[in-house]
Amino acid sequence: MTAVIEVSCINCDMCVPECPNQAIVMGAQHYEVVPALCTECEGYYDVPTCIAVCPIDCIYLMDAVREV
């Protein structure tokens, strides 16, 4: 699995410094996660820190089911 950042991202910069793998980069409109680099923080933290620090909850794990 990898983390995904939705288009509702407000580019607040909270997640970028928290990623131990530097897997979060600026895309055309908002931040994006580089799947090849995302390890869900395994070996670093108990939960993906990008998800934990996002103030608008726009980051989720790709295999997670999202309610719309």
UniProtKB/TrEMBL annotation:
Record-given protein name: 4Fe-4S dicluster domain-containing protein
InterPro entries: 4Fe4S_Fe-S-bd (IPR017896), 4Fe4S_Fe_S_CS (IPR017900)
Entry GO MF terms: iron-sulfur cluster binding; metal ion binding
Entry annotated with the keyword Iron: yes
All copies of domain 4Fe-4S ferredoxin-type, residue ranges: 1-29
Source species of the chain: Alkalimonas amylolytica
UniProt KW Acetylation keyword: no
PROSITE patterns: 4FE4S_FER_1, 4FE4S_FER_2
Keywords, comma-separated and alphabetical: Iron, Iron-sulfur, Metal-binding
